[in-house]
Amino acid sequence: MSVKIFYTQFNAENKTAILTQWLSFLPIKFRDIISRYKLEEDKTRKLLGRLLLIEGMRDFGIPNISLDEVKYNPFGKPYLYDHIDFNISHSGNYIFCAIAEGSKVGIDIEELKPINFSEVHQIMNATEWLYIRAAIDPLREFYRMWTLKEAALKAEGTGFLTDPDKVCVKKDIVHIGNNNWFCHELFFDTDYSGHLVTSETQHDYKMIKLDFI
């Protein structure tokens, strides 16, 4: 099994240049989808996610993939091939694309922003909330558990159509029904939290930073 995480960043100074330089490389259908976003930041995140997928697949020996080949499961999870899985996440100025050969994969990153716990109480179960509130940094612990759960739900292919309260977290394994997801916390920026999950026991993965400007 091979797992690689391709990631990139943008900022206020280069987002327009990225859109100008790279948007025309995408199929018309995806250009139309991106053009519907009002904010340049959202357009840039969507574009860079697709570029990471294209370059990541090239790294796995599949050059020149067509985004028109992307299909979706009944819950909206995108996929390309049976033997290679991918998952994209973005938050703030970061965009990540995890690609796994021989395993299902999910990834989630979140920028650490203040949050009212009472408004998201249903996301965690009672035991998890006790753990979060007892932590030295409750906000960071909340995002740690949030990204872990969301990465697993994305790998599962159902997203939050599965009640996150029914997702059981035990150390480095997430249990969803009869499925076990093996977790890896990502450390890339102190202002962010992130997790990678795989369906197979995987202790090694490679992070590859790509620049598009």
How would you describe this structure to a colleague?
It is a single chain. It contains 5 helices and 11 strands, in the order E-H-H-H-E-E-E-E-E-H-H-E-E-E-E-E. By secondary structure, the protein is of the alpha+beta class. It has one domain (2-209): Ribosomal Protein L22, Chain A (Alpha-Beta Complex). It has a 5-stranded antiparallel beta sheet with strand order 6-10-9-8-7, with helices on one face. A hairpin with a 5-residue loop joins strand 2 and strand 3. The chain is globular and about 50 Å long. The protein starts with a strand and ends with a strand. The model has no long low-confidence stretch (mean pLDDT 91).
For the record, what CATH class applies? Alpha Beta
What level of helicity do the residues show? 25-40%
Q: CATH H level: which superfamily? A: 4'-phosphopantetheinyl transferase domain
Q: Give the overall silhouette.
A: globular
